[in-house]
């Protein structure tokens, strides 16, 4: 597998030139500022260590392999029963449907093997990228149900007199001859006149980017990140199965029903027919989903960890998107043997274990008192399968889409809720279960009915964080030991040492080193001991970035940011402390003239975000975060 190299100040051309005589090839991954370095394994192994310490670069890591952590199927479940929705130990879907059966306004990304988008129980719930519909066709289409978008429901609508207002020349026709309008029809090539104009016949794939996204031309229903095409058709079955649990069409008299009767499923294929994929492709799929309106993604895969995918999950959070992940099928405690991406600490992740129809945790399901959030039906789950079929599969891969579907119902019922509110509602309404007690964060099973009930924990909960400003310190400079950081710290470009009560993520920033090592007293001591090296470094962004701090022990602790305007005297910036759950601003500080170095200290509890914004000068900067 190649090395993934995050560029900081070094340009792609400079990296390529620098490595030109090293027997490797440098190429773009398609991710922002992340390059792939390919070559002999022995060369890459040796290169990783010295590249990691190079000025101008961020992280360096091996690309990781992701796959489906499969559990065996049990033929005895091939009965057509959908116990996961309606059984005694199911998710109480009927009560949820009394509130809502879903909405075409909710887009769910299914990051998997793709989907059979022509399936008779899925086709109307497949997402259409309205921004990519050719203008020559869009002007002729009618939003029949008035939901503000063109969906396959609109394209298949038959008026009482039998006419179909969205079918025919200049709109769309049943090109594949299956008796309905589905994704294959709109993905068909547009037939053009000799002058290149639309003849009105054929599909909508015209080879032109309508929405300006030239990396994904004709992405009408999703994307294939394996082959870099606009065709995310499922050549395995896994993705079609997860899609059916999320949103097989409901109350249509056909086959099965999903947690959502109506929804927009965005199939994003990054796993091949043998269920293999890479962290780079998964990250690209997640960035695409976040940029194209998906407020929740289903991620029924896993493997080893890496910063590239974790950063993509953080990006999804910045777009307000929830990342539902399968906990894995090794029967392991992921608190001690992590399974990624489910075990990442990002606060927009819901990690899901599998239960059987008896209500017991499935023997193969991973668990973890801190790394797995909730259980859901995963054993013997009947759902859609390619080529108009249905199949029963088992695994945490099948459990995760029950949670994803419930999240989508909540988003339909409460479109203004933040991702933190939605997650809190899902977790706080879990049904207690003895087999999950001490094995998951909630100790319970997903209860969609309770989550959708009128008592809304997500909306009515009191603020989850508190903040009081303590003061500033302009005397200590880089000599933090004895004054700050007695519990833990994070210094830009230095390995962090966080306290046990806090999880931290720095989002939307790049790294910069002004000087290091240096004897300048403004530079931070790297260890706080004597003698010690010093480094003048920072996280920065030209507009703003976020430092996410979640204090988990229920107590208040001092937290300090160190700001230094190292290379100028013109910077000024604003630091807001924001309640991560409600978005409320708890405190705001502005500072300027911090060329000599300034500490800002607050007493914090709960989950907050420091939002650091540039007011004047080149960019916003923070050099260190200290606890205690």
How would you describe this structure in keywords?
globular, seven-stranded parallel beta sheet, alpha+beta, 628 residues, nine-stranded antiparallel beta sheet, single chain
Give an overview of the whole structure:
It contains 14 helices and 33 strands. Mean pLDDT is 91; it is low at 70-80 and 458-463. It starts with a strand and ends with a strand. With 628 residues, the protein is an alpha+beta fold. The strands form 8 sheets. Strands 21, 22, 23, 27, 28, 29, 30, 31 and 33 form a 9-stranded antiparallel β-sheet that branches.
Topology (SSEs and partners):
Layout lengths: L2 E5 L4 H7 L6 E4 L5 E5 L2 H12 L4 E6 L2 E3 L15 H4 L6 H5 L4 E11 L22 H4 L13 H4 L27 H5 L2 E3 L5 E5 L20 E2 L13 H10 L14 E8 L6 E3 H13 L4 E4 L2 E2 L3 H12 L3 E5 L22 E7 L18 E4 L3 E5 L3 E5 L2 H18 L5 H10 L2 E2 L11 E2 L2 H4 L5 H4 L5 E8 L14 E4 L10 E6 L2 E6 L8 E2 L8 E8 L2 E8 L5 E7 L8 E8 L5 E8 L5 E19 L3 E3 L1 E4 L1
Parallel strand pairs: 6-10, 6-12, 9-10, 12-14, 14-15, 15-16
Antiparallel strand pairs: 1-3, 1-4, 2-3, 5-11, 5-13, 7-8, 17-18, 19-20, 21-31, 22-33, 23-27, 24-26, 25-26, 26-32, 27-31, 28-31, 28-33, 29-30, 29-31
Helix pairs in contact: 8-11, 9-10
């Amino acid at each position: 597998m190649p090395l993934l190299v995050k560029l900081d100040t070094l340009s792609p051309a400079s990296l390529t030139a620098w490595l030109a005589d090293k027997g490797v090839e440098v190429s773009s991954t398609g991710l922002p500022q992340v390059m792939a370095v390919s070559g002999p394994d022995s060369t890459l192994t040796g290169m990783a260590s010295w590249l990691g310490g190079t000025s101008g670069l961020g992280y360096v890591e091996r690309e990781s392999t992701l796959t489906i952590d499969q559990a065996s199927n049990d033929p005895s479940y091939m009965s057509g029963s959908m116990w996961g929705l309606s059984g005694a130990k199911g998710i109480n879907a009927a009560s949820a449907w009394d509130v809502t059966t879903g909405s075409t306004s909710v887009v769910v990304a299914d990051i998997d093997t793709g989907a059979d988008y022509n399936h008779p129980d899925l086709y109307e719930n497949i997402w259409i990228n309205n921004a990519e519909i050719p203008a020559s066709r869009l002007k002729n289409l009618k939003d029949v149900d008035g939901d503000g978008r063109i969906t396959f429901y609109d394209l298949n609508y038959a008026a009482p007199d039998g006419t179909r207002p969205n079918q025919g020349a200049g709109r769309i026709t049943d090109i594949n001859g299956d008796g309905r309008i589905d994704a294959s029809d709109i993905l068909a090539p547009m037939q053009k006149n000799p002058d290149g104009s639309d003849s009105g016949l054929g599909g909508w794939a015209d080879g032109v980017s309508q929405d300006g996204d030239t990396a994904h031309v004709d992405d009408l229903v999703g994307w294939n990140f394996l082959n870099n095409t606009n065709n995310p058709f499922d050549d395995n079955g896994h993705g079609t199965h997860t899609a059916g649990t999320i949103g097989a069409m409901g109350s249509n008299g056909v086959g099965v029903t999903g947690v959502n009767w109506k929804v927009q499923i965005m199939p994003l294929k990054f796993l091949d027919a043998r269920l293999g994929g890479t962290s780079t492709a998964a990250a690209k799929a997640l960035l695409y989903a976040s940029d194209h309106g998906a407020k929740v993604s289903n991620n029924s895969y896993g493997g080893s960890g890496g910063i590239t995918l974790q950063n993509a999950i953080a990006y999804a959070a910045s777009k307000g998107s929830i990342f539902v992940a399968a906990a894995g099928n090794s029967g392991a405690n992921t608190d001690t043997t992590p399974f990624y991406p489910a075990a990442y600490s990002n606060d927009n992740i819901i990690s899901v274990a599998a239960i059987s129809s008896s209500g017991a945790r499935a023997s193969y399901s991973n668990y973890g008192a801190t790394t797995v959030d909730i259980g859901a039906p995963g054993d013997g789950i009947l759902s859609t399968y390619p080529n108009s079929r249905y199949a029963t599969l088992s695994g945490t891969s099948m459990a995760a889409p029950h949670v994803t579907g419930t999240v989508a119902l909540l988003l339909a019922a409460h479109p203004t809720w933040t991702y933190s509110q939605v997650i809190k509602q899902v977790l706080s309404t879990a049904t207690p279960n003895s087999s999950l007690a001490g094995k998951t964060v909630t100790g319970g099973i997903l209860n969609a009915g309770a989550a959708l009930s009128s008592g809304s924990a997500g909306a009515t909960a009191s603020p989850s964080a508190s903040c009081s400003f303590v003061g500033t310190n302009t005397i200590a400079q880089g000599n933090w030991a004895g004054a700050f950081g007695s519990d833990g710290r994070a210094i830009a470009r230095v390995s962090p040492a966080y306290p046990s009560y806090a999880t931290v993520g720095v989002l939307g920033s790049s790294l910069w080193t002004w000087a290091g090592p240096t004897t300048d007293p403004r530079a931070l001591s790297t260890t706080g001991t004597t003698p010690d090296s010093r480094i003048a470094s920072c996280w920065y962004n030209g507009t703003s970035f976020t430092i996410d701090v979640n204090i988990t022990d229920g107590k208040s602790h001092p937290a300090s940011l160190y700001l230094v305007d190292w290379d100028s005297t013109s910077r000024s910036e604003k630091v807001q402390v924001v309640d991560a759950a409600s978005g409320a601003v708890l405190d705001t500080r502005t500072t300027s003239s911090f060329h000599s170095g300034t500490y800002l200290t607050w007493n914090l509890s709960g989950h907050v975000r420091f939002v650091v914004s540039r007011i004047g000068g080149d960019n916003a900067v923070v050099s260190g975060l200290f606890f205690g």
